[in-house]
Amino acid sequence: MEWSDNPEQAAFRSEVRAFIESELPERYRPDGEGPMAWSADRFSGDPERRQVSDRWVEALAERGWIAPAWPEQYGGAGLTSMEQFIFNHEMARASAPQVGGQEISQIGPAIILHGSEELKAEYLPKILSGKTNWCQGFSEPGSGSDLASLQSRAQRDGDEYVLNGQKIWTSNAHNAEHIAMLVRTDPDAPKHRGISLMLVDMESPGVTVRPLINMAWQHGFNETFFEDVRVPVGNRVGDENRGWYVSVTLMDFERSRIRQAVGAHRQLQGLLEYLGTDEGTARSRTAEHNPLRLELVDRAIEVEIAFNLAFRVVSMQAQGVVPNYEASMLQMSIFETNQRMAGTEAKLFGLHTNVWEGEHALRDGATARGYVSAVAATIAGGTVEIQRNIIATRGLGLPRG
What we know:
- There is one protein chain.
- This protein is α+β, with helices and mostly antiparallel strands.
- It has three domains: about 5-100, Butyryl-Coa Dehydrogenase, subunit A, domain 1; about 135-245, Beta Barrel (Butyryl-CoA Dehydrogenase, subunit A, domain 2); about 260-395, Butyryl-CoA Dehydrogenase, subunit A, domain 3.
- It has helices spanning about 5-25, 35-40, 45-60, 80-95, 100-115, 115-130, 245-250, 260-275, 280-285, 290-320, 325-350, 365-375, 385-395; strands spanning about 135, 155, 160-170, 180-185, 195-200, 205-215, 220-230, 235.
- A four-stranded mixed beta sheet has the order 1-4-5-8. A four-stranded antiparallel beta sheet has the order 2-3-7-6, with no helix packed on it.
- Strand 2 (about 155) and strand 3 form a beta hairpin.
- The relative contact order is 0.09.
């Protein structure tokens, strides 16, 4: 496990830092509007804001850093796992907005590895432009952790598939132009072997998106319905009935979750800084309950553990080893730490946490929203129960229950 950069890595880190310092617009810096402003600016009706957004995208694209892990022939930078780690680490430290999400990390690589030349020519440039939105249609009402039991059906009809079914927890579906979906194309095959991956236009007749509002009154995900939606056969990624294997054999991305580890550290620092203010001191219960101070120390230790697990995972990848249960340990560590951090913060301020908005709201309501939002931290993206099963069976060699 390596904590320090070698000379080449140190030089690359300096290059990334210099790039961020010179190219990141002031508007997107922490002392400006922050990184979330980029997401709004790229579709803003204000031409000046769109221009700022485009300038950041163009600066990244010139170096292939929109998709740093993609091969150079497809517009990426072809970075190694360690270079990706360094790039993501420095971007996270600077709170620089990331262009693209799952379309860069999952959908694009699936097209690169398994898609036709026509699909590559049509979709990869659009993804790299930073001007299209994608969502992912995997989970269904009865198929979450057991995803292979999904029932959305696509029947072949000449040069098209006719798609019927429902997806749930579809993040960003209300903003997306395209969805990458796993659908069942052979209902008689074993459940892992009758699934195909398809790219569907969200404007297709028969697609309906309904919002799901979470406990923090936020609209991030949706339920999505498909009724006799026609999809060209050419929009299938990979062979028919091989979609499950397409979805799990993606490019060797850096999987250290360093952005989340840095985010947890920044969350802790923000809390400590607030506790150091007169307002934070007056509202906190640390003087009243010493165990809360010890609990805060536990959170600080857990943040450092998560950070070091991130280094462990990327060190393995740099040595050509594929992290397995180690990646599950990291994911579980970060998600549970974030959840416990929110709980500790709520305890520190007691009944003050109940105030969501107004002059009495803690940190402009961030404490209340963070506590409620953290309920889903150990569910989204693969439940911690699944991660524990992986650690038990693949890491400890325990029998399957």
